[in-house]
Amino acid sequence: MYEIYKKIVTPLANPSEGSEYLLKEKPPTFKPARTIRTPTDTTGLKITLFQYQTCPFCCKVRAFLDYYGFNYDVIEVNSVTRAQTRWTDYRKVPFLVVALPNSDKVLQLKDSSMIVSVMQSFLDNKTENLEDLVKCYPTIEFTDDEGEKRLEIMNRYFLMYGKHPPGRSKDDIVDERKWRKWVDDVLVHVLSPNVYRTPQESFQAFQWFSKAGSWEEHFETWERLLVLYVGSIAMFFIGKNLKRRHQIKDDVRASFYDDVNVWLKALKKKGTKFMGGDEPNLSDLSVFGVLTAVEGCDAFQDVKSNTKITPWFEQMKEVVSQHGGAKLTMERGNLLQN
Question: Active site residue: 2, 5, 21, 58, which one?
């Protein structure tokens, strides 16, 4: 599949040959909010995640990195001032800055689904390096229905297996891709109207965000209070707009339960521990990741009480925290060293 995209898609849509991901200058140095280290990561990649701790898309990327046991640093971005992203034209989090081993080249990987796809492709594809793989995800510019210019990353849900067979059925690959897209197109949009349902719930959510993100440690007091109060009020109104835009029921909790039950019904039909079988696949990691964003909010406690999500969620929490996929990362790193 990689060779097909390299020969067909890349020349038409990506004449820059991946240069949009290559930083011209090294980014400034920031003190990490957290440093994640596991002995099994021997890839030599120096990964830095720029994020909001409780952003669903950021949580999705963290779930992936943690499951596979990657070493990475976390830069917590102030959601109001965004001081930590002023150095780059692309300021939408999450994004990864990846310093390549034995090289002075630094990549900036953008969009949570593209990040997951290219990093998974890096693990699965034993012959291509990360710099080559990003060329399979060209960025194109287009004008939307409102006349605004937009950027779209092509192939962001596709994995590039190279010349080696993936060891999976076509149906399994397509199904995984379908659920990953469902997370981005459906599930994630029900979160904000639920956690910001009332002014009180909105403030409670931001208190959870502050605790989960250790804001007291990383931001000045005035910055933290600004985000708490201004952010919670703003998101209450934004949540109402998102409810209308995505046609969510007036009883927003019912929509949340419905979406979670769609996932659980498919999981039950599959008849396995995870959607990926005995081990999670990228659809499991995506659903789990976005749900962890609201884990400490009243809305998710209601979901746990009104659906049967808890067993799967707790199993996912365990396998992610224990770096269940780290063996693959170690094997890929060993290949690079040989």
Answer: 58
